[in-house]
Structures are given as C-alpha cells and as structure tokens.
Amino acid sequence: MKQTKTSLLIDAFAVYPETKSSEGIVNANWIAIMQKSGRKVSVISAFTGMGAKEASKGSTLLKTLFNFSKKSTRTLSGLTFRLLQKILLFQTGESNLFLRIWRKHHHQSLTTFLDNNPDSVVWVRILPCYSLYTILSVWNRKPFAFIVNINDPIDVKTLEDLTQPVPDWGDHQLLKQTRDCAQCWTFPSAKLATKISTLYGLDPDRCFVLPHVSRDSESLYSFPSETRNIRFIYSGTFYRSAFSKAVQEELRQFAQSSIGQKCDFRFLLSQYDDYSIEWLKSTFHQCTIQMGVTHEESLTFLRQSDCSLVFDGPLHSDLLKGKLTEAISDGIPIFAITAAQSSMDKLVLEYGGMTATPESRGDIEKKLVAVCEQFQQPAQQKVFYDKRKKVISQLSEQAIETKTNQLIEYAHKRFEWKIRHQSPEPSIPELVQWP
Predict the structure, then answer these.
(1) Which CATH number goes with the domain that contains 170?
(2) E strand map for 61-165
(3) What is the pLDDT of residues 251-270, one digit of tens each?
C-alpha cells in the first residue's frame, strides 16, 4: 500500500511576483519545486490565501492598502492615507493598517486550512517575521506541526558578537518563542544555522541547511570559442557597505587596464540612489546601467553574460544570496568580492569561481585579471566545468526536493511523538550541513 505524503502549507509573506524582492524570488523558486513534487501543497502569502474566493477579495483590499502605505508623505494620497491610518488605529496601539488587516486575513486563512487539514505540516518562511505572529497565536490555541525557515538574521548586527544576548522584544521575541513549538528550523548556510541557533537557544540538532534553489537550467554556460569582449553582469541592490571606496579604486584600476578595456559591464539595479549611479559611472567609464528590469529579463541578461559579479557587505559573511544560486544553476562563472572564509567565499571557490577580499590590497584587480585569463586557458576551463558539476548537483531541484521531503516527514513524525504522544520518537535526519 502506497504511503500518502503529508500535505504541506507554505506560509511565506514574500512571494514573487506579488512581492518583488530577493526573498520573494527565493521563496517562489522553492514553492515551484514543491508544487511539482506530487505532494498536496497550499500557499499563504502577502496577498494570497489559498485560492479561495474570500481570499481573492481580501487580496484586492490588501494590495490597495500596501500600495498606499508605500506612497511618500510628500504626495497628497500618501499623506491622506497616513492621517486615516492614525485615526483608525488610534486606540489599538498599532501603527500599520496594512499589517493589522493582513493579520486578520492571515489568521482566518491559517485557521481554515488547519481545520480542514489537521495532519499537515506548515512551513513558515522568514524574513519578514510577520507570519510568525499568527503562527504562534494559532499554535497556542491548538498546536500543529510547523517548520521555520530563516533566510536572513532579524538584525545582522547581532551576529557580530555571539556573547551578547539578543533583545527580548519584537521579532527577536517571536523567534525565541519557536524554541518550544517548532519541530525544526532551516537555513541557507551552515554558518548562519550555527550562529542563529546559538543566539536564540535553538536545538542545534534540529537546525538544518536547506540551500537557496533556482530552477534547473536546460543548457549550461560554455566559454565562447571566438575572441570577444568578456561580459560581466551585476544584478540586485547597490549596498554602500559592499561598494566601498577601496573596492571602487581597485575596480577603476582594472577597468582602465588593457584587459579591463576588453570587458563589458552591465549593472541591473533593483534599489539605488543618485550616489550609486555616480559611483558606477565614475568607476566604469563604459558600462550599462539599467533600472526597473523584471526578474525574467534579468535572467535573460544573466544567460547572455560570461561572469556574474556578486558583492558581500562586511556584515553578510554568514549569508548566501539568491543571485548567487541563480548564476550557479545556469553554470555562469562567478567573481565574488567577499570576506575570506565567508559562506559565499567557500561556495564560490568550491564551484570553481574566483573570490577576492576587499581587505587585501590589490586582490580584486589581480583576481579579475585571473578571471579574464581563464577565457584563454582550456585546461582551466575544464577544471571549472568539473567543479561546477558537483555543486550544481547539490543545488538541483531534485536534491532540494529530497531534503525538503525528509524534513516534512520528520516534522510530522516528531509532532506526533512530542505533542500527540501517538508514535515513537523519530530519528533526526542525517542531512549534509552544506554549504
């Protein structure tokens, strides 16, 4: 008799395309894989219930409120909305009308789902932590099995000193409360899993690494056979902490060199300001800067490129970027500017890419030259092809789906043992804590 798979509810506030953010894209990629897994999968997100008519009606209201909440107070509509928001929330102690109404719809959708599917596993994905408020509220009334996925720390500065306690308020307190009710936690990197479990007192044996995932590519990148300019691409937010003066100086020197003049640079910026535009123009005298590019368009540009540029800020050494796994899934060579021994440094080197550290003077320019020389060295290209094959296999849709399925069944069995006392204690899955 074939065993029925435990049904899954994915509770993720940010899901692309309704939420256009890196978190939204990472979540959407993973959801798409699970929806093809043969398991019953439902989704609750910022503007979506579970396909129900009442959820659709709520979605229209929430989208309207969300759009108004993002308008500047310098506009009449933005100012009017904030005045109305203050009046409506005057006696509640709250300050965000969108979140107040969203939580109401979220609570209704989650409760309805669990009433109809009591043996399901809920997988809540943060940041942001909005979903945890409802998850814990509903769990306190009637326990259910849930997993928490943590893509980023609530406050990246808390990772600097693990000897200092995290605050006992707000989102920090919500995450602490999951210690006694979540069945397990997942993270995109082993370093982040270790630090978060230490800071919040999570059971380290139940903290698992589940890497970011991108769709499997139909054809992987091949080095060009003809001689032409090397195409570099950067896609994402312009972080001032990553694009420092020291980094700028080395990139400028490379761009002005004889090798650098045979390179084309394209920057697709999702968040930027006048400073970022000026920074890029003064660094690369011949570069293409584009804003407002859709995710689908950025993937097309990526697949037309020869090397993906990825930058890490000084406080991001434990994190992994979704843009990195997108480049890996298409087999694109990668050049990363990051701290030595960071999560990204280890993964990029294992993949066959090149990394440079801002702290080491001259390292960025030297490594960029090495990247360009690789295009003239067939032996080095073969090494890259061999290395990337191993990494891509570990980040494939099948690999992520297999890990995910193991954790869903573990969470369900542990809940049956710990809360319902209806089965023996399950064995903890022996998953590779990578990357």
Answers:
(1) 3.40.50.2000
(2) 121-126, 145-150
(3) 999 999 999 999 999 999 99
Q: How far apart are CA 301 and CA 295, in angstroms?
A: 10
Please give the helix or strand (H or E) that residue 250 lies within, else none: helix 245-256
Amino acid in the structure at residue 199: L
* C-alpha–C-alpha distance, residues 354 and 352, integer Å: 7
Question: Which one, of 335, 331, 338, 295, lies nearest residue 316 by Cα?
Answer: 338
Q: Are 275 and 309 in contact (CB under 8 A)?
A: no
Residues 387 and 408 in one domain: no
**The domain containing residue 149 runs over which residues?**
8-214+400-418
The token pair at 415 is 């809940």
pLDDT at position 51, please? 41
Q: How far is CA 86 from CA 58, 67, 101, 372, in A?
A: 21, 17, 14, 57
Longest dimension (CA), the chain: 71
Residue 221 · residue 331 · CB < 8 Å: yes
Q: Are 188 and 321 in contact (CB under 8 A)?
A: no
C-alpha–C-alpha distance, residues 264 and 376, integer Å? 17
Q: How many domains does the chain have?
A: 2
In degrees, rounded to 5, the angle at the alpha carbon of residue 38 between the alpha carbons of residues 122 and 139 is 10
List b or e across 5-30, with b for residues whose CB sees 16 or more CB atoms inside 10 angstroms: ebbbbbbbbbbbebbebbbbbbbbbb
Judge if the upstream peptide bond of residue 127 is cis by omega within 30 degrees of 0: yes
Residue 359, classed as helix, strand or coil, is coil
End-to-end CA distance of the chain: 37
Record the tokens describing residue 206, joined without a space: 């139940």
DSSP state of 178: G
CA distance 320 to 193: 12
Whether the CB-CB separation of 188 and 210 falls below 8 Å is answered with yes
Nearest-angstrom CA–CA distance, 242 and 427: 42
- Residue 54's pLDDT is 39
8 A C-beta contact, residue 306 and residue 232:
yes
Residue-level pLDDT at 2: 47
